[in-house]
Amino acid sequence: MTVTRVLTGITTSGIPHLGNYVGAIRPTVAASRMPGTRNFYFLADMHALIKVQDPAKVQRSTLEIAASWLACGLEPDNDRVWFYRQSDVPEIAELTWLLTCVAGKGILNRAHAYKAAVDKNRAEGEDDDFGITAGLFMYPVLMAADILIFNAHKVPVGRDQIQHIEMARDFAQRFNHLYGDHLVLPEAAVEEHVATLPGLDGRKMSKSYDNTIPLFCSREQLKKLIFSIVTDSRAPGEAKDTEGSALFQLYQAFASAEETAAMRAAFADGIGWGDAKQMLFERIDSELSPMRERYNALMAQPEKIEAMLREGAAAARERHGLPLMRRLREAVGFRDLSKMPRILEVKASLLAGRAFVTEDGVPPKQPSIKQYRDSDGRFYFKLVDGSDRILLQSLSFENPKEAGNWVSKMKNDGHSSLALINNLIEPIDQTLENQIFVALDEIREIEIRRIEKKNS
Length: 456
Ligand code: TRP
Description:
Elements: E1 4-11, H1 18-31, E2 37-44, H2 45-51, H3 55-71, E3 81-85, H4 90-100, H5 105-109, H6 112-123, H7 134-148, E4 154-156, H8 162-179, E5 187-189, H9 219-227, H10 246-254, H11 257-268, H12 273-299, H13 302-332, H14 341-351, E6 368-373, E7 379-384, E8 390-393, H15 400-413, H16 418-421, H17 433-455
Parallel strand pairs: 1-2, 2-3, 4-5
Antiparallel strand pairs: 6-7, 7-8
The structure holds tryptophan (TRP).
């Protein structure tokens, strides 16, 4: 069975409100229980630094958001569900640099958040980049690293984040094109049927409108806020519109279909706003109160959360982040230098115009790449050493041209072509790895000399 890796990040720059709960936390926690998925949820504290430069605030928000997600039922088991802090995974910062070196600056110029900041500066007659940090500019690259380090397939996000996922795909594609097929191209998963929750004033609930209801405020505070929701001036007994009513939409987000139908009928029958608010309060409070209790208990034990997050990061790194990063380092050329001692030797001898001479004085046959059609009618190539032993065997190709192109690539690039053909060959026998490296580089040298000869 193929598993789908789902990943999402939560910026630790505030305290969750009901809109976050309905729009993100509740659906995401439910989705984490879907069979056939692996789920990576993390606190994006490195992203938070772009907006919040008050260390105490970053710390507090990290704790509050972690406690909120756990209180809402997230159950990290470090097997199907990982919950960690971005800054505990150093491979994310490392990958950010590798991606920075393939990311087009022009693409980053077009990022919505950066463009909005530039537009604001222009409107105010400032320099384009006035007050804009490179952190804001690089936001999409860091986000791409978050996603790509765990080879996530699906990234549940709000509409405003779709562009970021597209950029992550773009960077991954460029990386793969240069270095071979290492990174999965992620897809945004936008929940179409999750309603955006209205805030106290009827506009979308959002911190920037200052119209939010904190998820875990006290019962009393919750009641007070719900009673402050804006309604029209219709008196009890007058029929009320459900359409456009923030109160009704909030109710619907927490109620079953039957309860919603009953509330709709009550609106038509002219329920008083006070009674409707009381019903809304009770409905929301009954869903939140067990979670509020868990939240308060968790907040009283920050050391437990700390340990859990650390374990999450360690487990996710060990199982996914480190192996991938090891591969990527190899792919870009951060390699063990001791692994190619013979290459210099080969090169020196070839440059001197001598072939290797074995003990009995006979020049050994050289390694070569053979291209052929098999009885299944499909096309293959294989790398063989001087005594025709197979060092590397390709999978099959539909057409000979494709196989031929890979063979030329290998001849031109030597051992660095390995990263590119990685997914087109049978698994390599690890004990032959060194020989494969050397053979490919030898073939490359032969090719260079052949071309030089032809041209001279
Ligand atoms: N940018 C996301 C937001 O503001 C948070 C985030 C950071 C994220 N890294 C991520 C989301 C990786 C998904 C995947 O909501």
